[in-house]
Amino acid sequence: MARAETTPDTMRALYKSILHGNMAEVKTQLCPAIMGDLSRPVTPRGDTILHAAISMRHESIAREILKKCKQGTVPLLSKQNAMGDTVLHEAATTNMTCLAKDLLILAPDLLDMRNKLGETALFRAAHYGKREMFELLADIFDKKELEPNQKEALDHLKRHDGTTILHITILAEFFDIALDIAHRYKVLVNDKDRRGMIGLQLLSSNPLAFKSSSNCGFFKKLIYHCVPTQDTEKKESCRRDTHESDHQPKQPSSNDFLICVQCLSMVVRKLISVPRKIYASIWRFLCLGWPVMENISKEKIKHKSALKLAHLLIPKDLSWEQSEYIEVEDRISIRKAAARAEEEEAAKKLKEKKRQLDRIDGGGTPDRSWPEELPRTPPEEGQPISLLLATSTGIVEIVEEILKLYPQAVEHVSDMGHNILHVAIQYRQLKIFRIVKSKEIAMFRLVRQLDQRGYTVLHHVGVTKFQTRGTHSGPAFHLQEELRWLKRVKRIMPPHYEMHLSKEHDETAQEFFDRTHKKLLKEAKQWLKRTSESCSTVAVLIATVAFAAAYTVPGGSDQSTGVPVLLYDYFFLIFTVMDVLSLASSLTSVVMFLSILTSPFELESFRHSLPRKLTLGFTFLFFSVAVTMLAFAATIVLIVHLKRRLTRTLIYTAAFLPVSIFAILQFPLYVASLSAVNFTRKLIRKVLPNFCLPRRFRKNPTLPIYKSQ
C-alpha cells in the first residue's frame, strides 16, 4: 500500500485544529503521513507542529503529539525554529512544568541548547517571569556535577551580549525571581552587562519600581496603605527557607520540650493569622470587582519585592570606593577670560624666549622647571555608580540604604567631578538633597567641590537638560520652583563661591542661571498674561451680573416707597449679603489680575510677588463664583416660594454644581499657587520674635553649613 503524502492543505487543517484547541480533530488528523513529517515547519518562524501546540498553551495536544511519535523523538525535540528556539524554549514561556519534565526525560540535552541570541530555556523562563518553570529548570541544573557558583557553570545563565538572568529579570520587573536568582547564584550580583552595568545599577535606573518615585493622589495613597501583602511575603519567605534547607543538613531534635514549644508557637501564629486572613479575603473580593484595587495591590507587591532585592544587592556593591578627585577642587576663579588669556599668552612668550636662549647656549637640556603644558581634555563620562543613579532617578530607598551601610559613600566623586550633591541639584531631587544636607560634616566638603567644567553646586541649578515639567501646573510655577532651588543652594554654599567663574562659559552661577532660563522666563510671561487676561474677563462678567442684580431685586419693589417687597424675608438677606460679597470679591480679583498684567515680569518677581498675586486673584475669583451661585439659589427660593426642605436642598445642590466643576478643574493650579501662603508664614516668622509665635511656628537658630566650627 502506497504511503500517503502530506500536503499543504493537510498541514493547514492540522494547524487550525491546534489553534482552536480541538483535540478530537487533532487525533483524527495525526495520520501516519503527518507523523513521519512532524519536523516540517508550519509557520514563517519555522515552528513545527509541536512548537505551535506548546506556544498556543495546549498542553494536552502537545502530549498527544508526543504520544504518537515514540520513535525518532529526539531529533523532533531538538528541532529549532528560525530564531533557534527548541520546544523547551517554548515550554519555558509557560508554566507547563510537567511537560517540561517529560521533554527533559526524552532529550536531556535540551537544557543546554541555545537560540540565536544565546538564551537557554532557563534564561527564557526567567525572562518571561515564569517562576515555577524557572525553579524546576534551575533545580535540575543545580543537581549537575558543577557547583552552582562556579563561573564555568554560569555560562548558561548569560546570553551572547553578556546579559545575565539577573539583569533580564530586573529589566522585566520580575523582582521576586531576581531575588531568588541573587540567592542562588551570588556570582551574578556584580556581573556586568555590555554597557558595564551591574544589577543594582539597573535597579537604580527604574524609579517606578519604588514607592518614593510613584506619584499618588490622596485616595490612591489611602488604598495603598490598606492593601495587605502578608500572604505574598509569607510565600517568599517559605520559598527562601525551602531553598536554604536544601543546602543545609537537617538536624533532628530529640528534645520533647522543644517540640512542644514549637507546636504551641505554631498554634499561636495560626490564631493570630486568622484576622489577617479575613482581612486579606475581603481585599481579594474587592479586587475582583474593582480593577483599580488589584492594580494598586500589584504595585505595592512590586515595590516591596524591589526593596527586598535592593537590600540584598546594596551590601555587595562597593563601586563607590573608586572616586576621581580632580585638581580644580576648591579653586575659585574670579578673573574674566580676557585677563586669563593675557596671562597665558605672556607665559607662552616667556617659555619661547627661554627655549631660544637654550638654543643659543649650545642646545643644552631644557630647564625642567619650564615644562611644556599640553591641553587637558576632560575624561569621558562612564556609567555612574548605583548611588548617583539612584540620586538622579529619585529613589530615596536605595540612597538611604547605601548611606546607612556605607556613610563614607557620600563623598564619592564621579569621573566628571560630580558628587551626590551635584547630581541631586541637577535632577531637582529635593528629598535626597535634604538627606545629604542633614550630614553636616560631609556637606562642609561637598559644597566646595568643583566639577570638570569648573561648576560649583550653584552652577548646577542652571543646568536644565535633566528637568521635566510634568509635576508643574504652568511655566510660571516651574520658574518659581527654579528660583527656589537657586535660593536653597545659596544658603548652603560659601558666599564667595557665588563670584566663581566657570571654565566652560566664563560665567558666575547667577549669569549661567539667567542665560539658561531665558526661554522659560519668556514662556512664563506669556502664560501668566494669558491666564490673567482670561480670569480678569470672567471676574468682570461676574461683577457686571452682581451689580445688575443689586438694582433688580427679586420680587420687585413697592411703587410708592421703593422698598423691596421681600425685604423682611430671611432669604432676601442672604441674597443681599451674597450679592455684595460677589461684587466685592470679583472686583478685587480684577484688581489683582490687572496688577499682574502691569508688572515688569522680571525674573526675581516670579519667586514671590507674581505667584502671590495670582494666588489672591484665584482665591477671590473662586469665592465670587461661589457666592454668586448662592445668590442665585436664594433668588429662586424667594420667587418660587418653595416650602419643602428636600426641594430646597436640590436647588442648592444644582446651584453648587458649577462651583464644584470649577473647583475640580482649577484645583491643581490653585494648590500650586498656594505656595505663596508658606512664604507669608515664613515672613511672619522672620519679622516677629519667637515669644510672639506659637510653639510649633518658632524657629530654631542653626549655623550655616559653610561656617567653620
What would your notes on this structure say?
With 709 residues, this protein is mainly alpha-helical. The chain has four domains: 8-144, Ankyrin repeat-containing domain (Serine Threonine Protein Phosphatase 5, Tetratricopeptide repeat); 183-244 and 257-317, no CATH class; 386-516, Serine Threonine Protein Phosphatase 5, Tetratricopeptide repeat (Alpha Horseshoe); 525-673, Up-down Bundle (Butyryl-CoA Dehydrogenase, subunit A, domain 3). Helix content is 58%, strand content 0%. The chain is extended, with a radius of gyration of 37 Å. It starts with 7 loop residues before the first helix and ends in a 22-residue tail after the last helix. The model is unreliable at 240-254 and 362-381 (pLDDT under 50).
Task: Tell me the layout of helices and strands.
Elements: H1 8-19, H2 23-29, H3 32-35, H4 49-55, H5 59-68, H6 73-77, H7 87-92, H8 97-106, H9 121-127, H10 131-142, H11 165-171, H12 175-184, H13 199-204, H14 218-226, H15 230-246, H16 256-289, H17 291-313, H18 337-360, H19 386-393, H20 396-405, H21 420-426, H22 430-437, H23 440-446, H24 475-492, H25 509-516, H26 518-551, H27 570-597, H28 609-640, H29 645-673, H30 675-687
Main features:
709 residues, Serine Threonine Protein Phosphatase 5, Tetratricopeptide repeat, 30 helices, extended, mainly alpha, single chain
Query: What's the gyration radius in Å?
Result: 37 Å
Number of strands: 0
Question: Based on the structure given, which CATH architecture of the largest domain is correct?
Answer: Up-down Bundle
Strand content: under 5%
Question: What form results from the Cα inertia axes?
Answer: extended
Low-confidence stretches: 240-254, 362-381
Please give the alpha-carbon distance between the first and last residues.
Answer: 104 Å
Highest-level CATH class of the largest domain: Mainly Alpha
CATH fold name of the largest domain? Butyryl-CoA Dehydrogenase, subunit A, domain 3
Number of spatially distinct domains: 4
Largest sheet data = none
Count of individual helical segments: 30
- What is the string of helix and strand elements? HHHHHHHHHHHHHHHHHHHHHHHHHHHHHH
Helix content: 55-70%
Give average pLDDT, whole number: 78
Would you tell me the structural class of the helices and strands? mainly alpha
